[in-house]
Amino acid sequence: MGVESFVGWLRDVAGAMHENAGYLTELDSAIGDADHGANMDRGFQAVVAVLDESSFGSADELLKKAGMTLVSKVGGASGPLYGTFFLRFGTALAGVDPITPEAIGTALHAGVEGVLARGKAELGDKTMYDAWAPALDAYDAAVAGGADLGAALTAAAEAAAKGRDGTVPMVARKGRASYLGERSVGHQDPGATSSTLIVESAARTLR
Amino acid sequence: MKKLINDPGDVVGEALRGMAAAHPDRLRVDLENRIVYRKGAPRSGKVGLISGGGSGHEPMHGGFVGVGMLDAACAGEVFTSPVPDQMMAATKAVDAGAGVLHIVKNYTGDVMNFEMAAELAAADAGTEVLSVVTNDDVAVQDSLYTAGRRGVGVTVLLEKIVGAAAEEGRSLQEVADLAKRVNDNGRSMGMALTSCTVPAAGKPTFDLAENEMEVGIGIHGEPGRQRLPLAPAKEIAALLVDPVVSDLPYTQGDSVIAFVNGMGGTPLIELYLMYNEVAQLLDRAGITVARSLVGNYITSLDMAGCSVTLLKVDDELVRLWDAPVNTPGLRWGS
Predict the structure, then answer these.
(1) Are residues B134 and B151 in the same domain?
(2) Residues 27-66, chain A: which have Cβ within 8 Å of B?
(3) Count: domains in chain B
(4) A18 touches B at CB < 8 Å
(5) Whole-prediction pTM value?
(6) Which residues form a coiled coil (chain B) (predicted)?
(7) Interface touch A173/B113, C-beta < 8 Å
């Protein structure tokens, strides 16, 4: 799989963020500060602008540029977190050829570890990690069972969605929502929701 | 949403353009990077003071740039922290060899972006950067299972006091130590009568009935810890002052700077009425008000409501507070 697949992924994510900007902001209004949708949309539109203007020789070069663009354009906590995800994801693919399902798994793990290093969240804190952790587990299990990339990413996307839904009854312990304490219960985490969109997009586009 | 705007996406840029046009004598605005600079910065031998955060808290922080306060302020999108590029550009621009202090409010995004900027500035230009993170909001009780207490009203008092110290030519370490001392001695608590409306969202962040109030709010329209029936100002003042006084704790005979801050949508007549209640409560507790500040200084767009901040002070802090300041948002002395 070549650079074009990753370009397709980023364009698809941008579309998903644009389409869901209002929904993400609505989720964020309930337990945050009502800017998540606008931020993600602005960040990924900036990524698309970079894709329109430049061409990239390798997947890692492309993904690192996407990560830096998100850090530079998004702000808030989402900028450093998603920026770090794509930076580390891209870095893990440097010099890797061919890009196998195993290599994508390594990159996903590297990206999520970057998110954890910046955000210091744990499972059950009601953050994006509650979508990423089950997604990684499902991906690893599928690849170990001999699944191809598309099937493994589909399994990851289904697990991410379940993880996202699982944030509804949780008490938030990180980020803006943590100030609500018990009152955060009953609301779906916006970060777990945007993360799920990214994994679902990967399942649609990375072949 | 009824607001004086053109397009929700252009609010911050156009407001900065307006600041630049309104204060050409005191400010220089980098519109591309969204940085408000003190005119004439950097100043040789002076520690550079930078703050910043999401927009929508005006006059904080851009309105506090000028003589006796900040050298630069980075403006993020509404309620969204600025990005590391902005802070790094500001850090390099105000460093006159004495180093730079980052004044950061404790919000996950602000902390992460300032951390990245400090790392980048050190790696890129060798700039010495120290940081202080303000976390004075007593509404957040349990810091073990949250992101920690929010930085609110004390940030304003800190920027003034530390600004005066930097103006005197103190070293970076001295300025950072002072900043920490101010933060450690200040506490705040806020409440809202209405939600704010973020321009990009287009509708109120939360719904509050006509007979309700939200106690323990932060400055982003994030709901507070408790929703209570609306009460007279006297009772609201006690709801704000009691947790602040008991948290430090302040003791009889302590001197404070008492700060009643409007959230943006409450008129001054009500803020002065609140200050009257706060002053009486402090008097009854045996706490002396050395200095006071009343007005809209760290706001939350059009939110109605207020916050109370107390800062325990000694003679040195009072002297620094009284030192001249000349910024669009705060101005006194020679």
Answers:
(1) yes
(2) 29, 31-35, 38-39, 42
(3) 2
(4) no
(5) 0.91
(6) none
(7) no
